[in-house]
Amino acid sequence: MRGLLWLCVLVGMVATAHAQSEPCVSKLSIHLIGNYTEGARRIIAAKPRVIKVLDPQSAAGMREAMRDYKARHPKGLVVMRVWERTPGVRYRLQDDPVQSADDFWNRVLRPAVQALSPADRRLVDFLEGPNECENTPCWESVEEARWFGRFWERLAERIAQAGFRPCVGSIPVGNPPGSIAEIRAKLEAFLPALRAAKRWNGAWSYHAYSIEYTRDVGVEYWFSLRYRIFYEYLRERHPDLANLPMILTEAGIDRGGNPNLDGWRARGDAAKFQRWLLWYDTELQKDPYIIGATLFQIGDPSGWWSFDVEPIAQWLADVIANRPRTLRNPVLNGDFELGFTHVSGETIANGWTAWDGGLVNPAWPGSAHFWRVAGNPGSAQRTISGQIAGQSFRGGVYQRVPVVPGVPYRLQMDYFSAGTGDPNAGQEFGVGYDPSGGSDPFSRSIVWLVSTSAPTHAWRRVEATVVPTGEWLTLWTRCGIYWPVATTYLDVDNVALRASTTLLGRVVLADYGGDYRCQRVQVQIRDSRGRVVWRGQLPLSVDGEFEVVYEANVPAGVYNVAIRGAHWLQRVVTGVSLPEGVVNVTLTNGDIDGDNEVSLLDFGALLQAFGTTPSDTRWNPYADLDGDGEVSLLDFGILLRNFGNVGEE
């Protein structure tokens, strides 16, 4: 019984370490507030490394998010922050820091965690304390930093005694302030808190915002990457703390904390923010001590409009999941389920831009109007005209979408138009695209897939193959009326753009419980004579998907496709029609030495690595057959079960 208990503890420790040390997984995630939105659900389904929830003890949506996340991703990490009990709680430099920590635990944190059910408490990994110096002395002086360090040393202990891992600091962006020497002096004073975090298997946290909205490492070194200053100091002066994990428990774009003026939406557009996030994720991958960055925020669009990541939720989910391009829809909010924004009295879907083409008939001046309506199956964007709109006009919505020039895309959308049967009304209904990515609704380069004066009075789908001529493609809708004798409107929904592919595949890695995003597969495309016409090593998505992107130099035809994994036997799928081919395979585990059979040689390789973890010199990642971060009896079981199997050639 004792041995079983020890094994369970060891497995838990290994699983935690493995979840924190996977550089192959995006470090982007979300800070949830209030509501478990559709966008948040999509991101949770992508299995980010870590999430942060605010006040789950009082917000049912946050409890649902935690449950959903842990059910999908048991190795994922949940950070809990308590806010509702903190207003009015304030400690001064003259107060005893240890007694203050006990008071904060007893008045704020303990009542909050006790309000959770035992099952929900078990979902929380890290517990945060005071946020951004709102309740305590912090970083203005070395004396304050020393007080804060003693405060957190005690609070970390109380958190650990309650069964949680402490997340120490919640350091605001740009802090500790001062020169490098001043920052180091304050960190030295704060050292007891860091040692307590290490002692209790915890982490510390920084709020990593870009103030200037740049991708300049030299600038961001002082803001979103300021934590690197901290770790340079630790490596030099306290190397035992140099690998202390850090969670960036707030991240994104900010300037002064104004909910409406300082976030990414107020200071740029989705494309600008996406480019910054991809750059930032690349920088985070360079720092193994960073567990992840929870972007502020999702769930509270009315309170924190300019920070809301709901409009890019599907894109963010695709990035986190490492989903192949073919399976991504680059159209933001193409299903109109990710929210609408009220702009100058109009209701415009997030990610889309309204255009008003002015008067159709000067005798009846008016302007375009936009609504959110029940569509097919959920919400849709409506452009209205006629009597309700206030006379004649033409207008609609558009979106510029990033694409790959020369690659065929399949475009589809649903539309519904309604209006009068009077042929003199001069109605206009149109949906189309501009392959050059222009933003002029009257451009001759727009291809109108639907251009008519007759309403459908029913939902219809339009589909087309489009080939972009540049790195952007623009989607357009158009609605108008000449004579306002009736209400005329156009609804659009389910707008999707899918890149063509040479080959799309899905792999099941047998006997593997690790993260698929940390695996690659070798793929060969062979012609009827057995000649290899294409080969490559391809990353997998969180669900085991891969793609060979569109290759114009692979002629259309029937091919055989060979697929093998790092320690999985090869499978050959015959008779695959390309392009747009699809394959699904399950690979057999146990080929440690890569000779395409499970034999005594693999047994010897596993024996040599037995008992090791990634920090050991004898570690062999190919011998970790089940992906749990340790070569153990479980891996021996897999090898024995598959012993004697030979891969296909």
Q: What is the helix content?
A: 10-25%
Low-pLDDT runs: 1-21
Q: What's the assembly state of these chains?
A: single chain
- Helix-strand category: alpha/beta
Q: Numbering strands along the chain, what is their spatial order in the largest sheet?
A: 1-2-3-4-5-6-7-8
Which range does the strand content fall in? 25-35%
Over all CA atoms, what is the radius of gyration? 28 Å
Arithmetic mean pLDDT: 92
Termini distance?
Answer: 47 Å
Number of strands: 27
Main sheet characteristics? 8 strands, parallel, barrel
Annotation field: number of helices: 14
Tell me the overall shape: flat
What brief labels describe this structure?
649 residues, five-stranded antiparallel β-sheet, 14 helices, alpha/beta, disordered N terminus, eight-stranded parallel barrel
